[in-house]
Amino acid sequence: MNRLEFLKECAILISVAQSKSKAPKGESAWSIFDPDFTSVLDFANDIFAESRSVLNKDFKVPPVDYTWSDNKKLGNVLSNWLVSKCNTQGFDWQIVNHTQKTMIECVARNYDKTVWIPAESYWQQDYLSSYHKDVRVYERYDQITKDSVLIIDLPTRGSLQIAQDIDELFDLCDKKNVQVTLDLTFLLLSKSYSINVDRECIKCINISFSKLWPLVAHGYSIAGYKQGFGPHRDHYNLQKGVCNQLMQLMNTYPLQSYVEDLENKQTKWCNFLDLEPSDCVLHAVAPEELRLYWTHKYWNANPQLEEKQICLSTLFENEDMIKRYFNIDLSGRFYDI
């Protein structure tokens, strides 16, 4: 059995089990499908292409606590929780319902300015353009114009890496008075990257927890704003009911140990499949033979930007079922089956 055949059989196995509620389901709409053959097959074709969190049966979401808690306390808890990855002091933090909404808000607040995104963040262009805003893509830093806005995810979703010369980009933005909005969602899942956001140009930081924890249905995201840059203080009042809940999650699940547990799973599966682990603990670098399952394969028509990664979340979730089905213990290699 070759690697693609093994993953195809796993995909069908997991999809059939999900259709009969015998395996964990993702929280997104595309994870809910009819148990007929066509629907199961369609879902199986995409099952490793969706970047999502691991549905850990031991993960517990605390009850919502509507007791008032100010955003300063949230910022202090976040600062301690994220200390190994990013310095978050100097920002005012708020609960938001989606990182994309914060990006759109950034565009709306700077509608008269040119908005730039890197080529690897092509996925942001569609929904920002839907706001009737011309979003420009740069391939070289010197293309970014003065007094403009830069929106960038770090690590970039395309490569799940951070460019070695990223400080040169921030130096240029400082010099050209470019306002930078960062999406640091995948930084939470990185094994090696950290970033210094104590820069004049960085005005807003977005972090979604839905890739780290199974919280898509809850819409857990936060945004940090430099003073004077953010929205009206009451803009997100409807979301403040989950502030205490999110702080409880950070206290219960320390970032470093949670990511290390995922890294152990990643190492086990990458060894078995003979794949190179990605820096993001949910992914593996995938060769051409696994193109069927490449992440975000439908989002981009530019071969230069193809994301040669597959998401391992469903393998992590269904490891026991897969071992029983194939009668394996994952100590060998896929070609031993």
**CA radius of gyration:** 21 Å
Q: Kindly state the number of beta strands.
A: 10
Low-confidence stretches: none
The helix/strand class is alpha/beta
Give the overall shape.
globular
CATH class of the largest domain: Alpha Beta
Number of helices: 10
Sheet with most strands: strand arrangement: 1-7-6-5-4-2-3
How many independent structural domains? 2
Mean pLDDT: 84
Fraction in beta strands: 5-15%
- The CATH topology of the largest domain comes to Aspartate Aminotransferase, domain 2
SSE sequence, one letter per element = HHHEHEHEEHEEEHHEEEHH
Can you say what the CATH homologous superfamily of the largest domain is?
Type I PLP-dependent aspartate aminotransferase-like (Major domain)
Description of the structure:
The protein is α/β, with parallel strands linked by helices. The chain has two domains: 138 residues, no CATH class; 182 residues, Type I PLP-dependent aspartate aminotransferase-like (Major domain) (Aspartate Aminotransferase, domain 2), CATH 3.40.640.10. The chain is built from ten helices and ten strands. The strands form two sheets. The protein has a seven-stranded mixed β-sheet with strand order 1-7-6-5-4-2-3. Strands 8-9-10 form a three-stranded antiparallel β-sheet, with helices on one face. Helix 1 crosses helix 2 and helix 3 packs parallel to helix 7. The longest helix is centred in the C-terminal third of the chain and has 19 residues. The chain is globular, with a radius of gyration of 21 Å.
